[in-house]
Automatic annotation (TrEMBL):
It is found in: Membrane. InterPro entries: MFS_trans_sf, NAD(P)-bd_dom_sf. This is Alcohol dehydrogenase-like C-terminal domain-containing protein. The lineage of its organism: Eukaryota, Fungi, Dikarya, Ascomycota, Pezizomycotina. GO terms for cellular component: membrane.
Length: 236
């Protein structure tokens, strides 16, 4: 403990500072979401989405984020709790920007509502296009923004860079064996193809599960491809 600091105790907080036990429990309840918001380095004026906002710690997170001057989008399933939380924050902090968004108890219903909203305004094809655009943006973002974190790959890249910078071709990565160094791209590809096949036929349980799943997906494919012709020709 640093010099000049004092150890806080229940008696000191209640008797000298005037806090009640209820106040201490409430402050302890706020510490968890406060630490989480500090970890993500949330700054005043930024927008944060808290979901589910109707829980204990997450509801306290809405209060802390609003007190910090952030714009809060509170999402939850309990509509009454969301309304109470929004009204409480606006009454206590008139400048608080809290938006409540209700989600249902079923993820499929939430997705269906979004798709129906898009289809009613842009056509039935657009829910699929929106999904494709979103997946494309996420994929491109992952390719461009993600960084390599595998230590072996990073060390191998560093060894290659040092060989070029220091002009020392004898430098090798410690995990590299002579066979791996001399492997060509064809050898790497053939090894990558042979290993899964060997594992498939060398492990009976894996072969059984793979056969079962291929049969199930085959039936599903037949169902999708014959559904239209079946209802047109038979159940018309």
């Amino acid at each position: 403990m640093n010099e000049g600091s004092k150890k806080l105790s229940h008696s000191m907080l209640c008797q000298q500072l005037g806090y009640t036990t209820k106040d201490l429990v409430y402050m302890a309840h706020l510490l968890v979401p406060f630490g989480g918001l500090r970890d993500i380095k949330l700054e005043p004026g930024e927008t944060v989405v808290i979901c589910p906002a109707t829980g204990g710690f997450s509801g306290a997170g809405v209060q802390i984020a609003a007190a910090m001057g952030c714009k809060v989008i509170a999402m939850g399933r309990d509509e009454k709790e969301l309304a109470r939380l929004k009204e409480f924050e606006e009454n206590r902090l008139p400048s608080a920007a809290v938006e409540a968004v209700k989600i249902t108890h079923d993820e499929k219903k939430d997705t269906a509502h979004c798709c129906r909203y898009i289809a009613e305004r842009a056509g039935w094809r657009w829910p699929y296009w929106v999904s494709l655009y979103a997946a494309g943006v996420v994929t491109v973002g992952n390719i461009l923004l993600n960084t390599e974190t595998n230590s072996i790959i990073l060390m191998r890249r560093k060894a290659v860079r040092l060989r070029k910078e220091l002009n020392r071709p004898e430098l090798q990565f410690v995990f590299n064996s002579k066979d791996e160094i001399d492997m060509s791209m064809t050898t790497v590809l053939s090894r990558g193809i042979v290993r899964p096949v060997r594992m498939l036929f060398g492990t009976p349980i894996l072969l059984l599960l793979a056969t079962y799943m291929s049969f199930v997906f085959g039936l599903l494919y037949l169902l999708f491809t014959t559904l239209t012709s079946l209802y047109i020709s038979t159940y018309h």
